Predict the 3D structure of the following.
Amino acid sequence: MSVQQAGFRGFANPVDPTPAELRAWAYHPDAAVLQTMPPDWDLLVAGDRLVGTLFDLAMDPACPARRFALHCLYIYAADGIRTHFRAHPKRRLKKFVEQAEEHGDELLTTWAHNTRMLLARPELFEYHDWCEGGLVRSPRRLS
């Protein structure tokens, strides 16, 4: 039995999950066991196709994979901003930021604030914070 088989088995292709598969994984008891996922899985799923699902998961305080989804939102925001929105549409990111500000709890409003700060001051980008989970593990409002 491989390590992959010991974890969540609901992916047809874990490198390219569907929104439904990602949602099923996020609510699975083993969702926090990211060691069973492919390397750099966070970077693979933090794209336009799954960002809506990731946002929904991050908005749900009861989701076992909420911190992972929030981490992916930080990657998505940084990727869009740093590529001057060649990687992701500015309109889509703005919509998520506004929804987080209006309906999110402290974790999501902090993400929205930090995203707006990075938009205004791209020099605030630090790879560790935005792409390796630093702002999720140690939440803080950038200034």
The chain has a mean pLDDT of 91. The first helix runs from residue 3 to 6. The chain has nine helices and no strands.
